[in-house]
Amino acid sequence: MDPVIVVGAGPVGLSLSLALACQGVPCIVLDEGPGKEEPRPARSVVLHGDTAAMAHRLGCTTLRDEGAYYAAWRTARRGRPAQRITFEDHPAPLHLPQHALTRGLRDAATAHPLVQLVTESKLDTLEQDERGVTAHTRGAETTWWRGSYLVGCDGARSTVRKLLGIRFPGRTAVERHAVAALRTELPWPGEALLHRSPPSGPEVVTSRPLPDGVWRLDWLLPPRGDLVTPDALVTLVRDTLAVWCGGTTPPYDLLDTGVYTLHHRLARRWRDGRAFLAGDAAHLLGALGTQGVGEGLRDAENLAWKLSLAWHQGASEALLDSYEDERRTAVAGRLRAADQAMPALRAGSGLRTYLPGAARSAEILLTDGHLGRGPLGGEPTYAPPVAVREVPTATQPGGPVANVPVTAPDGSTVPLRDLLGQGRLLVVLVAPGTGVWDRRHWLGAGLMPRLAAAVSALPVRTDLLVADRYPGAPAHTVLLVRPDGHLAATFAGVRPAELYEAADAVRAGAPASPAAAPFPAPTVVVD
Fold it and tell me: How confident is the model over 100-125, as pLDDT tens digits?
């Protein structure tokens, strides 16, 4: 089968190509640019537990070398501290420049034998038929490319989206920010700060640590305020540092500045035949601390295992449609939560009018967005095709699984989420005490022989694992986990027929015949 064509070589396109390659699917990445990232420390991203783990699994080494985990999260209102949150019980957010993330992913993609990076190649034509996609590019070389599928990860002005004729409605200029990256000493080394209504300056200011004493400062500006001149931005820097450092501006080295405007948009469709949209090509968000790059990585995680299954075994139309169903719904929920909360937060009034039944303060709501929690940032829960839940656990069906230690039949013990991204279902037996047994004993004891036989008969490639415990699950609970780490079903003991039915539901049934798949008109050209 032909490789998958990925258009765009930003963090989302590179992550998707690596995720596919890790599952044995060859990819061609069409990069309109020269293949080099301009260092811009003021343009940074925050990765939360699931997205940071994904980038690490894909081989992005710059996370360790050029990123900084928050030591804590602080909030303040006016001149007084409000709260301080530490991260003993859940992963700390990871903050790094976007160019460093992109460079790390590009290095990993360059080193992978199944990824072909093609620079200075601008897409201008896209054709589809029942067996694949043909793309034409111009640039350093003008040529045609043939792929089994094509994914547009080419940003807010996506050529792929325009070629497919997909509308991109939404709201313009929902927030406007001034940002600065600078090296200085602050009173809270390594800790991020959200400061609302400071004694001087804009309504909201944040500071986020980077390595080597560098900080990104971010000021929320009036949506239609005056142009921010370089002198005005320097004044913001000096006044803010003085407020935080006892009235005196400390020495600082200004490295980078910028002013940017956030938009909220959502593509009407994310799939058109064998073509898909992901990342900023499919959605724009970022207000109230939400992370567009993070949502784009979640797009890649969700789509990769479905395209991998389609490439290796064939996939039903329903499975390919589920990418849009799940991810578009999740991102729409983020946008809706932000749009409902912003009027109250900006007006300084209570939230009950906009979020009925909510008693969260503005600080807590903003904290949720920045720390990847709640409706503004938490890992999504996808509606499972069959809500099999014979045994209640701490994880709802469709939710992200807990990262418990698991043991594989080869005797290795690793965190459960380290095994994601391989295109396989995971079946986990909760068996207290197995952690201290020799694997030769528990492989042939109790439920294991029957469960191993049931797993070998499943219609999708599946790994069998054992966990000493799982939150809320009694002994002999069997969990079925999707390749992207979302819980599909739980069972009380071994239920071969029910397990098979649930696994078949995860893949949304048997693959459709190629002739039955609907495809749009064959050719569209952009000037």
Answer: 999 999 999 999 999 999 999 999 99
Residue 345's pLDDT is 67
User: In the chain, which stretches have pLDDT less than 50?
Assistant: 348-360, 514-527
Which of helix, strand or coil describes residue 406? strand
- Decide: residue 420, CB within 10 A, 0-12 exposed, 13-18 middle, 19+ buried: buried
Task: Convert 164-200 to b/e letters by CB count within 10 Å (16 or more is b).
Answer: bebebebbeebbbbbbbbbebebeeeebbbbbbebee
Q: What angle do CA 413, 414, 416 make, to 5 degrees?
A: 125
Give this prediction's pTM: 0.93
Question: What is the DSSP pairing of strand 204-210 with strand 405-407?
Answer: unpaired
Q: How far apart are CA 101 and CA 283, in angstroms?
A: 20
* Sheet (strand 388-389) strand order: 388-389, 487-492, 477-481, 425-430, 462-467, 405-407, 413-415
Give the tokens for residue 205: 């200011």
Inter-residue contact 2 to 147 (CB < 8 Å): yes
What count of Cα atoms within 13 Å lies in the side-chain half-sphere of residue 42?
Answer: 16
pLDDT at 427: 97
Residue 266 CB burial class (10 angstroms; 0-12, 13-18, ≥19) = buried
